[in-house]
Amino acid sequence: MASNSNYLRLTNLTQATSSRPLFVFLPGMDGTCFSSQSQAVGLGSSFDVRGLFIPPCDRSGWSELTEEVATLIRLEQSLHPGQATIICGESFGGCLALSLVSRFPDLCNQLILVNPASSASQQPWISSFAFLAELLPATFYKLSTFSLLDLLIASHRVRKPMRQKLLSVMQAVGPQNAAWRLSLLSKFDVDDFVIDRPPQSILILASGADRLLPSKREASRLSQRFPRATTVLLPESGHACLLEDEIDLSAILKGLDR
Question: Rg of the Cα trace of the chain?
């Protein structure tokens, strides 16, 4: 049997219950539930929260990854028939979420995109860094993550223990695996996906101080594709906004329901 670190899975971030909607978090390029864990306590009062874990060694393409994650979500749904489902994708996970709702339009009732990396294919540095990352020895790759960290977060809004943990999970991916995931992003084009039946509700969170990707502009572009989507601008936030103490995803969702 594969070890826990070597297979794709959904992990429980709150106690399983059929009385609340299923909330599935799809992570950024690190493939862990780290950024969602800080939000799980607040979300747990309203949702049954699961986080996707993508092992560092995973080399699935978009199609395979989409099918595997859909199967995992279907399994969760089969345990509690009729339970509403929310899919929340952050950065890399935002691309995966868009692929899921394109291939499986009945998979969720609500879609949340947090600084989705769907603009990555338009950023020349993505493919260049993917090429360089694959060539870097592990030691030099770890050093490069220090610079990348400054682009990922608004450092004054993320506590030091969070910054250190984020750095750790980034380094755990390794250069070859990081190169693979960057190459996936460089090939992702939302215009390649036909989404005839979008979810009933779509929320896009866009960080105004994102230094990694043009998230505010991308939110505007996606809003044109999904006219009924609601966009919430986080003017002071960086790319990894869910790590910031000031950001409470549960409060944002409750505010929109009023």
Answer: 17
CA 18 to chain CA centroid, nearest Å: 24
Query: 42 is written with which tokens?
Result: 């607040």
Q: Which residues of 212-229 are buried (b: 16+ CB within 10 A; e: fewer)?
A: bbbbbebbeebbeebeeb
Mean pLDDT for the chain? 91
CA nearest neighbour of 75 among 111, 25, 4, 22:
22
pLDDT at 258: 63
- Between the alpha carbon of residue 47 and those of residues 17, 43, 200, 234, 236, the distances in Å are 9, 6, 18, 23, 27
Could you tell me the sign of the dihedral formed by the alpha carbons of 205, 207, 210, 214, in that order? Answer: positive
Q: Does the pLDDT at position 35 exceed 50?
A: yes
DSSP β-bridge partners for residue 26: 89
CA–CA dist 173, 77 (Å, integer): 30
- Its pTM stands at 0.94
Is beta strand 201-207 parallel, antiparallel or unpaired with respect to 110-114?
parallel
The whole-angstrom distance between residue 94's C-alpha and the CA centroid of its chain comes to 5
